[in-house]
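Project outcomes to date are best conveyed with an example. Our students and postdoctoral researchers have been running inverse folding experiments weekly, and each run begins with a structure described purely in tokens. The record below, which covers 118 residues, was selected by the lab manager from last quarter's runs and is presented without edits.
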């Protein structure tokens, strides 16, 4: 059984690990003015939407996550890493969704420091 306190602890742990990895990896994928530059650049190269590119990457992680959850061995990344990558691609998709709604500022206090302070 997972009680509320344990669930909250798990939520914070995943969010903290995902945020740390997101911002570390983002140094290689972002431009100075767009955190999602690499996704958008790939979309332009392929002639499709950034959402489709992110969904394809997300699907790749979900497939590996499913294999791991079903007991199959994962070779390149651990099951924990697959959860973290999946979480991060949901954040990327969320950001693309919000950008399409013309919301240009996310609550950076929560995303960048609020989670890490917990």
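After processing, the design step wrote out the following sequence:
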């Amino acid at each position: 059984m997972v009680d509320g306190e344990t669930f909250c602890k798990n939520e914070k742990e995943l969010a903290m690990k995902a945020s740390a990895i997101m911002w570390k990896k983002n140094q290689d994928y972002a431009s100075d003015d767009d955190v999602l530059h690499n996704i958008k650049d790939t979309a332009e190269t392929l002639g499709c939407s950034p959402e489709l590119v992110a969904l394809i990457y997300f699907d790749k992680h979900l497939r590996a996550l499913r294999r791991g959850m079903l007991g199959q061995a994962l070779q390149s990344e651990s099951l924990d890493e697959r959860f973290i990558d999946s979480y991060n691609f949901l954040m990327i998709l969320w950001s693309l969704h919000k950008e399409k709604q013309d919301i240009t500022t996310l609550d950076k206090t929560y995303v960048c420091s609020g989670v890490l302070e917990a």
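The chain has one domain: 4-117. The two ends are 24 Å apart (CA to CA). The training component of this project remains on track.
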